[in-house]
Specification:
The chain is α+β, with helices and mostly antiparallel strands and 252 residues long. The protein contains eight helices and five strands; from the N terminus they run H-H-H-H-E-E-E-E-E-H-H-H-H. 43% of the residues lie in helices and 11% in strands. One of its GO terms (molecular function) is nucleic acid binding. InterPro entries: RNaseH-like_sf, RNaseH_sf, SH3_Tf2-1.
Length: 252
């Protein structure tokens, strides 16, 4: 409003402040349906047009009790108007958004907000996400408690907007549903695992997928390593050894 009034006369902005303030306080706001001045005092301030011989507002001559009742009713109308406007804004903001919820036991990525993790976001080149972390408790649809290591020194409760689902992949299904007799689908899953990255630069997106696949591989093979008497144990170890060599070559 001030910019529109002063136009090119930038040095005269101080002289316009009084008029801009009056115009703002006298204008009806779309959210409340009333002017800020009327909400506070119960009537609008006089303008030069009011100096003419026109009928004065009835509310200017009300006694104290009636005026207080009018202001109370006015505030109720303003509150209802604001709530209605908020609902409209909420519907517009949530239009097209998909509701995301997690359950205890799910694994999620955590977005590292700069104001909450200043040390981990001190450089633009540092990762903006960390994890995956396991969901311990769903407080409500918007807040979740994570199994966060103590070294972070922050509250373990996060908003759903800072979380994204960790996709382990299909390795578990390949192992629990063997397709051929005498073979271990764990080895097949390793050969088809997305960790076998093609040659080329390691971008941020590919690094994240690489980390997801590696963590999924560790989770899904953890139980198999507990029993070294398993006939497929040596074969699995050999496959993992070959796989790690390929990973090192890709990183180099």
């Amino acid at each position: 409003l001030l910019r529109a009034i002063i136009s090119q006369n930038l040095k005269s902005w101080e002289e316009c402040l009084t008029f801009v303030e009056f115009a703002y306080n006298r204008s009806v706001h779309s959210t409340t349906g009333f002017s800020p001045f009327e909400i506070v005092y119960g009537f609008n301030p006089l303008t030069p047009m009011d100096l003419l011989s026109l009928p004065m507002s009835e509310r200017l001559n009300l006694d104290g009790k009636k005026k207080a009742e009018y202001v109370r009713t006015l505030h109720e109308k303003v509150r209802a108007s604001i709530e209605k406007k908020i609902q409209q804004y909420t519907r517009q903001a949530n239009k097209g958004k998909k509701k995301v919820t997690f359950e205890p036991g799910d694994w999620v990525w955590l977005h590292l907000r700069k104001e909450r993790f200043p040390k981990k976001r001190r450089s633009k080149l540092l990762p903006r996400d960390d994890g995956p972390f396991q969901v311990l408790e769903r407080i409500n649809d918007n807040a979740y408690k994570l199994d966060l290591p103590g070294e972070y020194n922050v509250s373990s409760t996060f908003n759903v907007s800072d979380l994204s689902l960790f996709d382990v992949g299909h390795d578990k299904d390949l192992r629990t549903n063997p397709s051929q007799e005498g073979e271990n689908d764990a080895i097949t899953a390793i050969r088809r695992d997305p960790l076998a990255l093609p040659s080329g630069p390691i971008t941020r997106g590919r690094s994240k997928k690489f980390k997801e696949a590696l963590h999924g591989l560790v989770l899904s093979t953890q139980e198999m390593f507990k029993d070294e008497g398993n006939p497929a144990h040596e074969k699995l170890v050999g496959g993992l050894r070959e796989y790690i060599v390929n990973i090192i070559q890709v990183q180099d």
